[in-house]
# Entry
Amino acid sequence: MVREFCVRVPSGLALYVTVSRKMKRVLSRESLLKIFKCYEHLPGREDAELTILKGHLLVESRIIEYISKKLPNPRGFKNDKFRFAQLLMIARSLCGDNKYANVWQSIDNLNNLRNKLAHELGENEYRDALNKFLEFHFTRFFKGQGDEYKEVHECVVSLYSSMVHLIDDDT
# Structure
């Protein structure tokens, strides 16, 4: 059985949560607040490129949190010297659950997309990376809407939420 419910917050933002039999539990209040924070940081206007850049930072913050929670001595972990790809590799290695394989691949695609956006001047390289990111994400998670900004926004929030859920699952 699948149930959907809506959570409203004071700003009027609504988060629709789908709960199925496969979920072990519903996200904690703290995790839901983190997801709301994600919405606050992403641009409200239709700017896919800014959403990619900010989304990359948001997902990175959850990867760092995940790594820190998995380590016996997190104070010894100095993340300021690691690139995103290295952090992703460490987090992926610490995750024993293969059900997150598509999430890790989609995050890797987000990183490639962000790198094309930040370091390549050509529109074609960026478009190719964007199409790969959206196509991979929507063929594995849910159907796209046909609006580039909304799809990018939805993918970023989905990846961020997946990381929050992974952290919640492991605690």
